Amino acid sequence: MNQSSKSWNNWFLILAVVGLAIAPLIFVRDAEFGGADGEAEEAITEIQPDYKPWFTSVFEPASGEIESLLFSSQAAIGAGVVGYAIGLYKGRSQQPKE
Questions:
Q1: pLDDT per residue over 29-67, tens digit each?
Q2: Using an 8 Å Cβ cutoff, are 54 and 48 in contact?
Q3: What is the DSSP letter of 30?
């Protein structure tokens, strides 16, 4: 495979990823994006309306924005750790053996 076809393949993959990220924003107009916690709470109260939670959170964020910030920070740190580990092992595997 020559360099030109590799370049086109990379650009096609980048366009596909951008398209997949933007398509739901264009085609899905009236969607509500909620978390799994809210869905689970609704399902539990539907099945057993008198259910009382046996555990309360240790820390409650002051607002939804702070909660989103903490969640996205946690995801970014996790992605950084995973990316570092993959890069480290990839680099070690490519080093010449002595």
A1: 777 777 787 888 889 999 998 988 888 888 888 888 898
A2: no
A3: S
